[in-house]
Hints:
Subcellular location: Cell membrane
CATH architecture: Up-down Bundle
Keywords: Antiport, Ion transport, Membrane, Transmembrane, Transmembrane helix, Transport
InterPro entries: Cation/H_exchanger_TM
Oligomer: single chain
Mean pLDDT: 82
Membrane topology: Multi-pass membrane protein
Pfam families: Na_H_Exchanger
Amino acid sequence: MSEFFKIDAHLLLIAIAGIMALLAAVVPEMLKKLHLSAPIIYLILGGIAFWISGAGVIKPLRQLEEIKYITEFVVLVALTNAGLRIKDPFKWSTWKYSFRLLIIAMPVTIAAATFLGWWVVGFAPATALLFGALISPTDPVLASELQTSEPGKEDTSKVKLGLTAEAGINDGLAFPFTWFAILFITKGPDYQNWLGEWFLYYFLLKIAIGVVVGLLCGWLLYKLIFSISNKDTIGKISRGILSLALILLPYALSEIIGGYGFLAVFFAACIFSDYEKHIEHMNNLHDFNEELESFVVAVIFIGTGVFIAMHYELLFDLQILAVALLMVLVVRPLAGYISFINTGLNHFQRFALSFYGMRGIGSMFYLAYALTSAEFDEPKKLMAVTTATIFFSVLIHGVSARSVQKRIKKYDATNEDAK
């Protein structure tokens, strides 16, 4: 009888993975008519699972290395999807609004978050700098309703295109500022000893390597796949295997050479989206990536829900709550709105582009990356304020995104008819 109904950790993990896969398949479909996003449900389910089963059965990812590798893969999948979505990725008209978010809103957000982390939460300067860096990138996963259309479908929305392009590139641009915090704590506050190294190597060179490797790798992959294939065989190429190659190869090559892999993956996907000849296959790639993304998002946010349930008392800390809400409701919206002065955008477009700078999985990756690279003060409190910011972003943006999407569609349709 001992062979029946036995439960061990390995089998339990397999069962949990199966449940998460089922949720990833069902939950997004169930929510299509509701004003909710899937991550909100996953957070709630993670909290419920913890309270029902207790920490003895379901545990969050306590190992930072595990968090880093899982969130890394989620971001890679999301960046590939963002790159495949962007039509005409090498035209200035595609980037003119997101460029302002990158050079104005992102630095302002980093500076404001650093100040709030130091002044309100009481972080040491290096930890406050890290908080500013990791909370700055816009997440390409959350509120996908506000991303531009999938490959092959025309989308004239300046708001959707701007948010997708920004999210695709600033997940990589957060790396130099994360390294600034790491160098600050490892080499000391006397920045004159390492500022030149940071700017030349961690900022200029690593960004350039990531972009160049991504463009070359994307071009080579595209030529390799579609030059050796004909009309009869191209449809037989596995979209899953090709998608994984597009995700993994640019990232690995860029990191090996010394560049930022996130940028390489995004620009490699942009190369694919720039060709319309094989748009049907691009749609297949995008569809597979979305399925893969749905599963890993379920895993991450259920785990986040468990963490919130375990450390819920930290989320009632008034300092943490204040900083999290200020980041979501004031800092990013204000920084974004300032970025679009004298652009010709109306108030609604400026609001949507500014307010929906969502915080999410990229922040979790940078948190884990930095904490495994150097010893920062108060890591538990840093994790709490980061998680709280993500929680409020998921809740506020997820609940309101669908309504805003409808208004964007109505506005764009009205403008198109007026032309």
